[in-house]
Design a protein that fits this description.
- The complex is a heterodimer of chains A (about 325) and B (about 120).
- Chain A has about 325 residues and is α+β, with helices and mostly antiparallel strands.
- Chain A contains 11 helices and 11 strands.
- Chain A has 2 domains: about 200 residues, Orthogonal Bundle (Helix Hairpins); about 100 residues, HSP40/DNAj peptide-binding domain, CATH 2.60.260.
- The relative contact order of chain A is 0.08.
- Chain B contains 5 helices and 2 strands, in the order ααββααα.
- In chain B, strand 1 and strand 2 form a beta hairpin.
- Chain B is elongated and about 55 Å long.
- Chain B starts with a helix and ends with a helix.
- Classes of the chains: A alpha+beta (about 325), B mainly alpha (about 120).
């Protein structure tokens, strides 16, 4: 970046005298940054140029070496300006929808919802009674957000839940099968009342799924740990496995070690719109007998004495 | 689009721990993809703005969500007002003149009410 023509005296820009202390400089800069930061002044066209001058003045004066050289006249106030894209440029270009306070639905845009989104629930009140009567102002009611905790199985399989509202009303909410935490159900016309005959807003129900002691959700799949006896793990066999639709029979293959994962096809989370259903993955967890007796212990001891082995041989030096 | 590491290098005034907390608090909302974050230019500009407010304006973690909330409302309003202005601008001249005249009456009445 080439040298920029001489700018105004940095002391002057920050409103300081040549004898200003470091603390004075810091304070002056903070005060002006608060006032002129372009992102905090989206409507002021000159804020950006002003803020750049202030930043450059601060960069020069807050560096003791540069400041001393400037004071001795060895350098002028021109500095390499760092190119920067301010937030307001992106936000005003319409890119900040993700950060917008209100939800915005393009599909059902009409004048009422536009004004309702602009002024929120209390729009007409803000304009006073005259605002509502003067032009026969009609406004859609605001959207109201509620949160609803849903048991795991209800969320996975779908259910109808009653939601008691603070105003005494109760809403029956149909939970579609496969819904997950963070998703929202929209009930048209169940939000705030409209103004001047305008339609009511919508109720937006945010879903929070409770954890389940047995089942874990993994996208469209369900995961579960299945305890098996040493005999079932070693010799294989048929076992009953809980699924979200009830217990089903599953074959544990011979020699299924701890951590072996078996798949029950089509026993996962139902797809929302008739798509393919997920699977259930079963992780085999062999458990010791609940009350091993002397006979069992003697057998194990003798067997391992005759067949010594080290299952940790591949773990490297960490075990030494 | 930038990954988290690139944002840390580009902005320079925030560390991984703080930026992760900001994402958790939803001060910054990068896209979440393939186990990592993807920051748009707008997200990076927002991170830079948060750094400015923290370092240069002494806005602390308590006040930051208040400021960001108001800021987002201002930009949301600006977007919608611009749509309204564009919609008015697209009307025939007599409609635009009628809107301008009504606007003048509204502003005058507000002034009389409040002063």
């Amino acid at each position: 970046m080439g040298p920029v023509p001489i700018m105004t005296d940095p002391y002057e820009i920050l409103g300081l005298s040549k004898t200003a202390s470091d603390d004075d400089i810091r304070k002056a800069y903070r005060k002006l940054a608060k006032k002129y930061h372009p992102d905090l002044n989206p409507g002021k066209a000159d804020a950006e140029a002003r803020f750049k001058d202030i930043s450059a003045a601060n960069a020069l004066l807050s560096d003791p070496e540069k400041r001393a050289r400037f004071d001795r006249g060895e350098i002028d106030a021109s500095g390499a300006e760092t190119p920067r894209n301010f937030y307001r440029g992106f936000a005003d270009a319409g890119g900040a929808r993700r950060y917008g306070g209100e939800e915005h639905f393009v599909d059902n845009e009409d004048l009422e919802s536009f004004f309702s989104d602009l002024f929120g629930h209390r729009g007409a009140a803000g304009g006073g009674a005259a605002g509502a009567s003067a032009g026969g102002f009609r406004m859609r009611g605001g959207n109201v957000t509620y949160s609803l905790r849903v048991p795991f199985l209800d969320a996975v399989k779908g259910a109808r839940k009653r939601l008691n509202l603070p105003d005494g009303r109760a809403l029956d909410v149909d939970i579609p099968a496969g819904i997950d935490s963070g998703q929202t159900i929209r009930l048209k016309g169940q939000g705030g009342a409209g103004v001047g005959g305008g339609p009511a807003g919508d109720a937006l129900i945010e879903i929070d799924v409770e954890p389940h002691p047995l089942f874990r959700r993994d996208g469209s799949d369900i995961r579960i740990d299945l305890p098996v006896t040493l005999a079932e793990a070693l010799l294989g066999g048929k076992v009953r496995v809980p699924t979200i639709d009830g217990a089903v029979a599953m074959t544990v293959p011979k020699g299924a070690n701890s951590g072996t994962v078996l798949r029950l096809k089509g026993k996962g989370v139902p797809a929302p719109k008739g798509g393919a259903r997920g699977d259930q993955y079963v992780t085999v967890r062999p458990v010791l007998p609940s009350s091993p007796d002397g006979e069992f212990e003697d057998f194990i001891r003798r067997w391992y004495e005759a067949h010594p082995q080290d299952p940790r041989s591949n773990l490297g030096s960490e075990t030494e | 689009m930038m990954a988290l590491e690139q944002v840390l290098a580009a902005v320079g005034r925030v560390d991984r721990r703080d930026l992760t907390i900001w994402i958790e608090r939803r001060w910054v909302r990068p896209r979440h993809e393939g186990g990592g974050y993807l920051f748009s230019d707008l997200d990076v500009a927002r991170v830079t703005l948060i750094c400015d407010m923290r370092h240069d304006m002494a806005i602390d973690d308590e006040a930051m969500p208040v400021v960001l909330g108001l800021l987002d409302q201002v930009y949301g309003m600006r977007t919608r007002l611009r749509h309204l202005v564009d919609a008015v601008a697209a009307q025939p001249e007599e409609v635009r003149l009628a809107v301008a005249a009504e606007l003048g009456r509204q502003i005058k009445r507000d002034d009389e009410d409040h002063f």
